[in-house]
Amino acid sequence: MRIAGLLASVVLLVLVCVASIAFGAKSMPLSDVWHGLFDSDGVGNDVIVREVRVPRTLLGLLAGAALGLAGAVMQALTRNPLAEPGLLGVNAGASAAVVSAISFLGVTSLTGYVWFAFLGAAVVSALVYVLGGSRAANPVRLALAGTAATAALYGYINAVQLLDSAALDKLRFWTVGSLASADMETIAKVAPFIGVGVVLALLLGRPLNALEMGDDTARALGANLGRTRVLSMVCVTLLCGAATAACGPIVFVGLMIPHLVRAITGPDMRWIMPYAAVLAPVLLLGADVIGRLVTRPAELQVGIVTALIGGPVFIQLVRRKRMAKL
Questions:
Q1: In terms of Cα–Cα distance, which of 282, 267, 211, 264 is closest to 68?
Q2: Closest residue by Cα to residue 251 from 198, 325, 177
Q3: DSSP letter, residue 50
Q4: CA dihedral defined by 138, 269, 196, 16, rounded to 10 degrees?
Q5: DSSP characters over 209-234
Q6: Which of 137, 174, 203, 215 is deepest in the core (most CB within 10 A)?
Q7: Distance (Å, whole) CA 282 – CA 64
Q8: How far apart are CA 161 and CA 158, in angstroms?
Q9: Which residue, among 264, 269, 103, 112, has the nearest Cα to 171 in the 3D structure?
Q10: Is the pTM of this model over 0.85?
């Protein structure tokens, strides 16, 4: 059943990728899409297909998988069903570091963005985790710490952008999250980091299963708690840092997908991870396609669409958690 569901998810992902390439802000016949993919002349619609839609789809695949896996790892690590990189300040930390690098250090290349994004993600994720209760990872304190860090960091980001018009022009898409700036150079630079993070996340399935049962049970099962926590934070930093450097902070993907996956697979992280890696890009690319179609010929950024979808889902999860305590 789980294997069949995973195969069905892969088929769904392929269909969404086809839709991402076939449909966009500019309407074009499917014959032109086919020509651009397999018999390109390098002019007209062929350029849009090859140089805009294909890189955009590939970046959506990478960023979606990164955010879905990061959310699953963070929820297991903190034993908090509301944990998500965007909600816990990880994406905000990466964005704040990138803004600082551009405004104060004159960094202009994506390679520089990536390293600063990693640094910001690592510092904020460690800070929020410590403030949230460290070993106990108290859900309430963790959520409060993440909310406070996110608010403070986005206040800082907005202040820097208002004071530096050049930074505002360069970083406007970061404030909402977008796949619109995708190109093959960007993909080539972030893909190795996301690849390492994906492999690490898949390898952490078994120890995270033990960690979710509580520290005492995990120790009894032979899990190395310190190593698991450190590797998990490295994993989240790699995935979120690379995804944020490439397309800005996109929230709620890492929150919604693990909950959807658990309804299919149960609590086993060894199955949650591959499902999340497949279904999160489905959500991200699907939201991107919706954003391109609903406001033609303009575009609604994917970060706005995921927020519109994820906001009600988050409220429902909070209500369900509160009701379960009554």
A1: 282
A2: 177
A3: I
A4: -110
A5: HHHHT-HHHHHHTT--HHHHHHHHHH
A6: 174
A7: 8
A8: 5
A9: 103
A10: yes
* Residue bearing tokens 């590939």: 58
pLDDT tens digits for range 29-69: 888 888 888 887 777 788 889 888 999 999 999 999 999 99
Is the omega angle on the peptide bond into residue 297 within 30 degrees of 0, that is, cis? yes
CA distance 191 to 4: 28
Closest of 116, 125, 118, 51 to residue 85, by C-alpha:
125
Is 243 or 80 the better-scoring residue by pLDDT? 243
Q: Find out whether 248 and 182 touch, Cβ atoms under 8 Å.
A: no
For residues 319 and 264, is the Cβ–Cβ distance under 8 A?
no
Q: How far is CA 152 from CA 93, 119, 121, 167, 235, in A?
A: 10, 17, 14, 19, 24
Compute the distance between CA of residue 174 and CA of residue 221 in angstroms, rounded to an integer.
43
Question: What type of residue sits at position 268?
Answer: D
86: closest CA among 263, 275, 289, 247?
247
Spatial distance between the Cα atoms of 129 and 213, rounded to a whole number of angstroms: 18
Question: CA triplet 81, 85, 89: central angle to 5 degrees?
Answer: 115
What does the buried/exposed string (b/e) look like for 14-46 if buried means 16 or more CB atoms within 10 Å of the residue's CB? eebbebbbbbbbeebeeeebebbeeeeeeeebb
Q: For residue 172, what is the DSSP state? A: G
Contact 50, 40 (CB under 8 A): yes
Asked if residues 223 and 95 have their Cβ atoms less than 8 Å apart, the reply is no
Radius of gyration, alpha carbons of the chain: 20
Residues 231, 18: Cα–Cα separation, whole Å: 35
What are 104-127's pLDDT values in tens digits? 888 877 677 778 888 898 888 888
